[in-house]
User: Which sequence fits this backbone?
């Protein structure tokens, strides 16, 4: 943009910018890298030189063996996957439907209903935990994944509805009117015209909803702490509490918890960042 | 024209409405209601008026812990406001400067910790700061600061600050991304116009760019506020429900958990839990109300 | 006094391909220079180089004989009016105009005098406390100009300032800019892609294409003596008719060209640079063709399409020799599709472009006006 008026100054500014950004990036990545590197080392290797990469002498997978043998890590992982994906699908489907109703139709109470949903964006669902637990007890859903899914859907809906309805308002009127003129029913319009059009927004909502669900500790701890229903976040938390002195196992369990997210991020970071940037501009 | 009942609208709304109402809105209202009841030893609940609040704010056994948690929570929030958001602004400003190389790569990397579970982040830092392992001490040694090292997480005076900084480290990506998005939405020509008029980069930043992103700064403030007064996972996974040492890292979230489920000799009480939750609700509602009525109204959104 | 010279200005982003190459231009004090050309021709880049928003890869930019390549915009004594106006959205009109003066450390009282003066000239005195979003497009435009005026620059730069306005407002603002130029006696460089804007505003028009100046001159020069095929077809509406042919006779004061289809045309152009047998393009503007046999060069054709503009109409013909041609006819005359008509033009009206597209100098360009008057 700006012309080079004083080459040296500009060079220095650019250099300083790079130093600050690269420095902070290092700070952001270093802890994660340190854990992963040390999870691949023997106990001696971990303590002798924590900052060294594993070599033939210090390389060891003993921590991973311990984790996979003495905990149901794969089960927890599966639980997390089931809960996250089921919640996500329901949030997107129900959220899109409700968003469409609020964005498209004017009816008595539509404003109040929109406000009712918007309330949930700002007020955390955790504050209702006492009653949620009571409710789940009476529905006999404690220690089931269903309980988690229901709570997470309720938690994710408000934001999903807000983002999606803002997006739906931008769908050109002509498109819907053309469909109506052709005699297409309201449901068909939603599923065949509207849903395909809002795909980019769906991706944004998916990220915003998925991450907190996958990472949540609170509700698994309270609603589903049973051994069969633990999620990976809770599983890791309790495993580490139990094996706190087994450094290999602790590092390995942390690495196992980080890796899926890391791999997903490598593939989807671009869409994700674009989604956040686009969503935030509005 | 005779209108039939709009069944399709009802069908579109019903699933979301039912789930949200039953599992979010109702529990919240029910929690507020429960806070006016008391639980007997047999588990039966009976109307108690403001008794729980009287206990919470008047009984030293409760009130000391409550105000301690509140104070800590305010500190927790202020540290985020003073470090996380300015840092996010700085990083976003640097990234959004024209011609900065690798901006996307930095963004991706700095945002990564945000996606990881707070539990994992807590443990990672716990290991790194552990005197047993000695990584931090060793690295401080590189700059001859090894004597400065202390078991920060274990000391009453430093534990809360250390945890706050861990949280800042994890979540700085969120204000950074929001502010970045707002900054790049400012048209180039406006910045160029100021440049042509002789304004320095520093002046352009403070008199043009920052005023234009004030709404976003307001938004990050309220998001930080709600997130901080609702926090729990980090303290719980690093310090446990007791938020030690000696409750020095106790915040409202952990206090709520103990009130609800009990700890050591004290038995958990759903109704006391509900009372604490109601207090948290009021704090958050107050913050949100201040934001909407005083801040957001004053800040105009600029469409370019 | 301000005088600007562009000496061999070159712009390259990658060091290999030039976006602009060897631009030479002199801008005199008080001159209104319009850079015009199709999008992507480099005109905006050139303006931004003069402004200081784009680095100059090679060559010299001089303002009042001083080399300013390395000066930041504010020290070059220029002011720029942006296409999007680029008003600061959070500042009132007054503050928008005051910003640059404040940055320059100007005395508040003096700034106030300048701002009120500019606001009076632009008739925006009553808007000073408003925010940009409370203004109409035309008012924002004035504020943008006002912001430039208060800085009392040696040189004003306008980057397509009318393109965000609707058609009616564009004409009105165009007139106002012309008036302002006269009042302020300002030196202006103005970029546009619109040839009407260029012709009506410019003292000097610089036609650009492919990163090169195709021709620089007064509006009339460009119209009468286009230097090459590009300028000939870019200036004027509808586009100049072009007919391919081969030179049959080449004299100093005329050429006779044998057109494809067998017809011959005499053109009063300098033929010294052309040889018999050369392939050339003969050009004739629609408005220089008559709907009768009075001109020395005659064509006949069939009307394919008529566009009625009221005072005149455009007749799209297929000539008996097969080529297409547009004629501007008199609006009152009724012509129907399918009509066979004769058209003609004096030999002075024709342009000839050699194989490389360069024009042979027309010898009696002004004669057209006289000829037309006699004809009417």
Assistant:
């Amino acid at each position: 943009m700006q012309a080079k008026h004083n080459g040296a100054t500009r060079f220095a500014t650019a250099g300083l910018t790079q130093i600050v950004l690269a420095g902070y990036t290092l700070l952001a990545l270093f802890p994660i890298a340190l854990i992963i590197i040390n999870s691949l080392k023997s106990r001696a290797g971990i303590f002798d030189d924590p900052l060294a990469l594993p070599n033939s002498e210090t390389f060891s997978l003993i921590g991973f063996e311990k984790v996979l043998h003495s905990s149901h890590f794969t089960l927890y992982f599966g639980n997390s996957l089931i809960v996250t994906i089921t919640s996500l699908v329901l949030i997107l489907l129900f959220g899109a439907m409700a968003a469409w109703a609020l964005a498209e139709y004017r009816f008595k109470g539509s404003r109040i209903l929109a406000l009712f949903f918007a309330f949930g964006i700002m007020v955390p669902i955790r504050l209702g935990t006492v009653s949620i637990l009571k409710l789940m007890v009476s529905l006999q859903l404690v220690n089931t994944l269903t309980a988690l899914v229901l709570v997470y859907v309720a938690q994710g809906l408000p934001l999903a509805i807000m983002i999606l309805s803002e997006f739906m308002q931008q769908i050109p009127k002509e498109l819907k009117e053309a469909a109506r003129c052709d005699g297409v029913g309201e449901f068909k319009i939603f599923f065949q015209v509207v849903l395909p059009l809002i795909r980019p927004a769906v991706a944004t909502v998916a990220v915003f909803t998925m991450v907190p669900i996958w990472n949540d500790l609170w509700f698994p701890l309270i609603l589903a702490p049973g051994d069969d229903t633990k999620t990976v976040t809770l599983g890791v938390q309790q495993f580490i509490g139990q094996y706190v002195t087994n450094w290999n196992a602790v590092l390995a369990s942390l690495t196992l918890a980080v890796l899926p997210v890391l791999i997903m991020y490598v593939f989807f970071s671009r869409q994700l960042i674009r989604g956040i940037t686009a969503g935030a501009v509005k | 024209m005779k209108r039939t009942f709009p069944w399709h609208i009802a069908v579109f709304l019903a699933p979301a409405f039912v789930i949200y109402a039953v599992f979010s809105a109702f529990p919240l209202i029910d929690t507020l209601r429960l806070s006016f009841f008391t639980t007997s030893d047999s588990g039966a609940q009976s109307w108690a008026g403001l008794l729980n609040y009287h206990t919470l704010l008047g009984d030293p056994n409760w009130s000391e812990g409550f105000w301690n948690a509140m104070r800590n929570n305010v500190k927790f929030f202020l540290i985020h406001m003073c470090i996380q958001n300015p840092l996010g602004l700085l990083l976003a400003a640097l990234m959004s400067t024209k011609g900065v190389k690798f901006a996307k790569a930095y963004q991706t990397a700095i945002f990564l910790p945000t996606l990881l579970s707070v539990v994992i982040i807590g443990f990672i830092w716990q290991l790194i700061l552990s005197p047993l392992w000695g990584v931090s001490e060793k690295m401080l040694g590189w700059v001859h600061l090894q004597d400065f090292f202390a078991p920060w997480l274990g000391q009453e005076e430093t534990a809360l600050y250390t945890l706050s900084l861990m949280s800042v480290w994890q979540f700085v990506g969120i204000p950074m991304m929001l502010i970045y998005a707002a900054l790049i939405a400012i048209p180039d020509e406006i910045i160029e116009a100021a440049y042509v008029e002789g304004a320095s980069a520093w002046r352009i930043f403070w008199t043009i760019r920052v005023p234009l992103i004030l709404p976003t700064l307001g938004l990050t403030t309220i998001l930080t506020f709600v997130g901080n007064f609702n926090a729990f996972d980090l303290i719980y996974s690093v310090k446990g429900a007791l938020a030690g040492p000696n409750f020095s890292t106790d915040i409202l979230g952990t206090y709520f958990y103990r009130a609800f489920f009990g700890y050591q000799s004290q038995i958990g009480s759903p109704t006391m839990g509900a009372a604490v939750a109601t207090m948290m609700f009021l704090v958050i509602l107050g913050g949100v109300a201040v934001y909407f009525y005083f801040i957001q109204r004053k800040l105009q959104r600029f469409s370019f | 006094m301000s005088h600007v010279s562009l000496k061999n200005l070159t712009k390259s982003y990658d060091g290999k391909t030039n976006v602009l190459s060897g631009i030479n231009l002199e801008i005199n004090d008080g001159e209104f220079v319009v850079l015009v050309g199709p999008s992507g021709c480099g005109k905006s880049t050139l303006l931004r180089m003069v402004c200081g928003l784009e680095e100059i890869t090679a060559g010299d930019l001089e303002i009042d004989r001083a080399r300013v390549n390395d000066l930041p915009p504010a020290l070059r004594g220029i002011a720029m009016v942006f296409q999007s106006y680029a008003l600061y959205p959070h500042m009132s009109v007054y503050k928008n105009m005051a910003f640059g003066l404040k940055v320059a450390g100007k005395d508040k009282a003096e700034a106030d005098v300048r701002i009120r003066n500019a606001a009076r000239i632009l008739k925006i005195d009553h808007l000073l406390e408003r925010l940009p979003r409370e203004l109409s497009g035309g008012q924002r435009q004035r504020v943008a100009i006002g912001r430039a005026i208060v800085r009392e620059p040696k040189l004003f730069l306008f980057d397509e300032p009318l393109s965000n306005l609707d058609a009616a407002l564009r004409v009105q603002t165009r007139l106002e800019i012309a008036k302002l130029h006269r009042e302020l006696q300002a030196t202006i460089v103005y970029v546009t892609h619109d040839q009407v804007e260029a012709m009506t505003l410019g003292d000097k028009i610089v036609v650009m294409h492919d990163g090169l100046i195709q021709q620089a001159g007064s509006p009339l020069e460009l119209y009468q003596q286009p230097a090459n095929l590009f300028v000939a077809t870019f200036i004027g509406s509808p586009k100049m008719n072009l007919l391919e042919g081969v030179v049959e006779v080449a004299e100093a004061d005329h050429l006779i060209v044998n057109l494809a289809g067998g017809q011959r045309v005499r053109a009063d152009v300098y033929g010294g640079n052309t040889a018999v047998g050369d392939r050339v393009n003969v050009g004739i503007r629609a408005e220089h063709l008559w709907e009768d046999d009075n001109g020395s060069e005659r064509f006949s054709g069939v009307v394919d399409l008529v566009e009625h503009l009221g005072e005149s109409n455009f007749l799209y013909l297929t000539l008996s020799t097969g080529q297409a041609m547009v004629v501007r006819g008199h609006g009152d005359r009724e012509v129907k599709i399918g009509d066979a008509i004769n058209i003609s033009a004096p030999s002075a009206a024709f342009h000839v472009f050699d194989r490389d597209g360069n024009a042979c100098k027309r010898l009696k360009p002004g004669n057209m006006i006289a000829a037309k008057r006699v004809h009417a």
